[in-house]
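Table S2 (continued). Query chain:
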Amino acid sequence: MSMCVEHARDKGAVGVVTETAFDNIPMQKLCEKLGFKKWENPQWKKGITYKLVFN
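Corresponding output:
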């Protein structure tokens, strides 16, 4: 995941969005550790959407 974030930054992206299942606790913890914030995504109700916006 860190490599994906680094790649996005290198390519000039404004951020990264990821989705994970409600029961995928390890991924949720990783997202929060890397600075992702929960994002209410009305288009995806099967789990949790996280967003990391670059400054």
